[in-house]
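The authors assume throughout that readers already know how a fold can be written as discrete tokens. A single example would do more here than another paragraph of explanation. An entry of this sort, consisting of the sequence and the corresponding backbone structure tokens, reads as follows:
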Amino acid sequence: MQLTAIARSLSCTNGLTSRLGRDKIKFWKVMRLTAILLTFACLQVAASGTGQTVTLKVKNAPMKEVFREIQKQTGLNVLVDEALLEKVGKVTLDVRNMPVSHVLNICLKDEPVSYTIMDGRIVVKPSSTGKFQSPIISTTNPQEPLAAIPIKGRVTDKDGNPLEGANVKVKGSKTGTTTDNQGRFTINVNEGDILVVSYIGFSEFTLSVTAAAINSAEGFSVRLNPAQTVLDETVIKGYYKSSRKASTGSIATISADKIGNQPVADPISSIQGRASGVMVTSSSGMPGSSFQVRIRGENSMSNGNEPLYVVDGVPFIFPTVLNQFTGANGNQSPLNSINPGDIERIDILKDADATAIYGSRGANGVILITTKRGTAAESQIAVNIYTGTRHVGNKLDFMNTQQYLEMRKEGFLNDAATMTLTNAPDLLLWDQNAYTDWQDLLMGNTANVTQAQVSFSGGNAQTKFLITGAVNKESTVLLGDFGYTRGSTHFSIDHTSKNGKFGLTTSINFATDKNDIVPTDVSQYFGLPPNFPVYNPDGSLYWYGSTQNPVAYLNRTYETQTNNLIGNNTLRYVILPGLTARANLGYTLTTMKQLQTLPASGFTNISPVPGSTAQYGNSDVNSYIIEPQLDYTKWLGPGKLSLLAGGSWQ
């Protein structure tokens, strides 16, 4: 019995313990659920604290009153020292449904305070820097964004016509919309967002979302400008201008930025590789050398294939006419005297575009060179200086002395020939260990290139001007002191009367250059034996029979000096609306002086030349042009009627 009682007692005790354990577990489950619900409640309060909006309209109200209204509308408690509020200025505000943080940013801007939103409270305290600081908004979920506000707007073209289907997007986000058939849109934004408005055929437009725009009943009004495409580019066709999309011919244009990015002395070299159907070949790598230009191939077997050059409406003299004799760089080109930095654009007319305007003179194509003009802006000075070096990039691989002599001996052995002083001085007479790299000796120097340009420009809507001065200096890779120097100046003025009827445009280009080079290309002597002596023991040039010592050619000189003047004056007067009278007056003057010296030291002792000689060549040519014109333009509905009549006296 005793054992049974004990057993029952233990059983009762175990049952009580089990019930107490179940109650305890149930209690903790309830507590856990309560904690979770409280957490969600806190999250909701914190989120609503940052996302709630305020509608407020006050004028010169103290900040205390603003805080009271914010607390009333949002339920957020405001903790602030009243003494601190006295330092905050009065507020004038008119907002509708604006987030609390945005309202506070506006009210406290430029004030010596900062604020924090957290746990359903707005805590305002003095700023540590004495200036308004970016607010600290603390929530249980810090990644939760502020509530966006819907804002309206309208997108039109420059004439006010609505653009349907224009894209409106918040930059850096996935928020976006499109406009309706009235060009209107609605999009959710926050203050400080960047809106990007785009439409096919129009330039993209960006704008910042401000508080004023958010509070405006009309929202944004955006006008898009047509995008400038390649087809809208202006092309010059001799006596008139057109757009590329309206042009029926083939015209290539090289603009000033492309020309200026190339360190070249001749403007024609800037065309190389930039225009289809135009082949530009240099006659020599020497500075000042001319270029051969072929537009759409060769057109004549006897009458020449050079295109017609026109500078600012004035035909330019054929480049090679003035040359009396040539040097190692071929014909001297007067086009070298035009500073590439003064050129605004180069237009190349091909085929029918050239002949329809210039007749048979344009049979080989026409190259139109337009120089720069002044712009309506404050007076400014621009300085551009560049310097660099040049050298022969690719050299031929030649044998050294030992390899060369072994080859020569093997040749005599194979031919079973006998070596003599006449046919084998390199094997029997000259030093078997001497070595001369003729490429490096004759053309292995480093050429220096320096160009400096200074321009002064400015003006207003009525009068614009541009004055430019430039100096260009180049040395050569040849052994000796040779080089090319050019100085140029460019002047342009454009004036229009106040009533816009009378206009005057004047441009003057003057340049002088000097080219000092050798008469003969010495690269033909690279194949001399590597042990051929250059000098005698006494320092004089070495001669052997009729073999030319190429260093002697460097004693000869070829000097060319060119002066080039191009002047153009255009008068215009508006007779009637759409009817304009013009007169184009142009003048060119080009002079060339050439001197070639052939001293006796440049020839062998058995040369038939009796002694030192010199050749002189002086030539000049000038031309003028007078072209009166009448131009009539009238818009007829969606189209435009253009008539041009005139004559040319040259």
Notes: Confidence is low (pLDDT under 50) at residues 1-21, 35-50, 136-147.
